[in-house]
Design goal:
The protein is mainly β. It is about 10% helix and about 40% strand. A 5-stranded antiparallel β-sheet has the order 6-5-4-1-7. A 5-stranded antiparallel β-sheet has the order 13-12-11-8-14, with no helix packed on it. About 25% of the residues are buried.
């Protein structure tokens, strides 16, 4: 019996590793609103409510729940059907960021400017250090790459 017990203990230490992705992979919220949880299930307390295009880095998985890391390095859980790995997205990481009508400071600020930290976007293209973005209600513009977190 001691051999069986040690095998179970060894297996229990390996299983959580098997459910984690080999490399942290980016995912984006693909629904209008999503609740992040402190654990993998609706019985766990809500830790944050986020909006469409909020990016995360997937760092683990348990069943249909993904463990994700946000731009601050905090870890949360989200239900897999609420995110997509087929969308490129970004979030403002600075206190605020100007959204411009073109890729450069010579272009006027858009009506959306300025946006605050945690404002999320879908990335539509990139030109040098400028990222063309669109929010969930189709406001579009350009933001300097240094102001964004893009996992």
């Amino acid at each position: 019996m001691p051999i069986l017990r040690s095998s179970v203990i060894a297996l229990s230490m390996v299983l959580p590793i098997l459910s984690a992705p080999a490399i942290a992979s980016p995912v984006c919220v693909s629904v209008p609103e999503a609740n992040l949880r402190q654990g993998p299930g609706t019985q766990f307390e809500k830790s944050w409510e986020v909006f469409k295009y909020m990016p995360f880095r997937q760092v683990g998985q348990q069943g249909d729940w993904l463990q994700v890391e946000d731009l601050d390095g905090d870890k949360h859980w989200i239900y897999r059907p609420l995110v997509s790995d087929g969308i490129k997205c970004a979030v403002v990481k600075s206190k605020e960021a100007n959204v411009r009508n073109g890729p450069g400071t010579q272009h006027a600020k858009s009506a959306l400017s300025p946006v605050e930290r945690y404002y999320s976007f879908r990335i539509t293209s990139q030109k040098g250090d400028w990222v063309q973005v669109e929010d969930e209600v189709f406001n579009a513009g350009w933001v300097h790459k240094s102001l964004l977190w893009m996992p």
